[in-house]
């Protein structure tokens, strides 16, 4: 009664090998969350505002706030909409309102 054969592969299973496999499986399930949180802390993720250009055209400020809520750490501009020609006003919004960085501008 101490040994069983698996249906696939013919490997002999013991209580020890089953517990070992269960332990490895539990660790593997926990790893993605750990790795994801480590990666998020190390590398900020940015979004191209071109991908949300429709929302930016309707309400640029609200679009920036929504992008920040989703969790992006920065943006690449694809136009400045109601801030066109007003870089000082746009710079004031970043730290106070969204907490995101402005990484680049599409030409």
Per DSSP E runs of 2 or more residues, the count of β-strands stands at: 5
Low-confidence stretches: none
Strand order of the largest sheet: 3-4-5
Helix count, DSSP H or I runs of 4 or more residues: 4
- Mean pLDDT equals 75
Report helical residue fraction.
Answer: 40-55%
Question: How many structural units, i.e. domains?
Answer: 2
- Apparent shape: rod-shaped
Give a verbal description of the structure:
The chain is rod-shaped. The termini are far apart. It has 2 domains: 4-41, no CATH class; 46-105, no CATH class. Helix content is 53%, strand content 15%. The longest helix has 28 residues, at 15-42. The protein has helices at 15-42, 53-58, 60-70, 87-98, and strands at 4-5, 12-13, 46-48, 74-77, 101-105. The strands form 2 sheets. A 3-stranded parallel beta sheet has the order 3-4-5, with no helix packed on it. Strands 1-2 form a two-stranded antiparallel sheet. The mean pLDDT is 75. By secondary structure, the protein is of the alpha/beta class. It contains 4 helices and 5 strands.
């Amino acid at each position: 009664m101490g040994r069983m054969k698996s249906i696939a592969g013919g490997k002999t299973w013991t209580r020890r090998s089953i517990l070992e496999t269960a332990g490895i499986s539990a660790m593997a399930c926990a790893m993605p969350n750990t790795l994801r949180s480590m990666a998020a802390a190390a590398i900020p993720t940015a979004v191209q505002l071109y991908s949300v250009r429709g929302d930016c055209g309707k309400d640029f400020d609200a679009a920036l706030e929504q992008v920040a809520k989703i969790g992006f750490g920065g943006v690449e501009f694809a136009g400045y909409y109601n801030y066109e020609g007003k870089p000082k006003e746009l710079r004031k919004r970043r730290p106070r309102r969204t907490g995101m960085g402005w990484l680049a501008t599409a030409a």
